[in-house]
Amino acid sequence: MLLEEEKIFYLSRLLSQFGELKRKNHFGGFCLLVDDAIVGLVLDGCFYLRGCLVARSHFEASGFNRLVYSKKGIPLEMRYYLLSEQVWHDESLFLQYIELAYRSAIEELKQKQSMTMRIKDLPNMNMSVERALGKIGVSHVDELRMMGAKACFMKLKKHGRNNPSIKLLIGLAAAIEGCHSAVLPKDIKQELIAWYNSFELTSV
């Protein structure tokens, strides 16, 4: 049994405010995803918000009950929380909880992607650049993002790869942005070129 049609429409309207809404069959019900991050679950006529990272402590502090799912007769506590009727009748409050669930889910998704994706898999990157970055202590995507293109470039020039080019600098900046260097905004490219030229002059 699914949620009543009115509630499903209401729920879809609220969730759609945060991004592209999708459904995916899960646990005999279906998950609701916003921008490919799982935000909630509809199961046995009830809606549960997913509580990961900071959302979990907030939902528990609010007194929401966790979903207990029975698998082969063994009860398992899931990271999904049942909303009270009070929340359903307060749209402003409902949106606050949805936003918390959404932002936590997006952050968790980003963390997982950073852990599993290798530098060579980023746009503009390859095995050679990955090896060169590894030699200066940048082995993971999150380390590259944290250090930034300019700092990585300086370390490569000082300790690693010989004479890194402006093309590599722009490629690193674009990789951090998640795009090909050809579509990196013009103003960012110009700033990088100006920085590269001044850096080359000071290091002569």
TrEMBL record:
Q: Name one GO biological process term.
A: establishment of competence for transformation
Name the domain of life this protein comes from.
Answer: Bacteria
User: Which Pfam families does the record cross-reference, listed alphabetically?
Assistant: TfoX_C (PF04994), TfoX_N (PF04993)
Q: Which residues form the TfoX C-terminal domain?
A: 116-195
Q: Where is the TfoX N-terminal domain?
A: 14-104
In Swiss-Prot or TrEMBL terms, this protein is called: Regulator of competence-specific genes
Source species: Providencia rettgeri
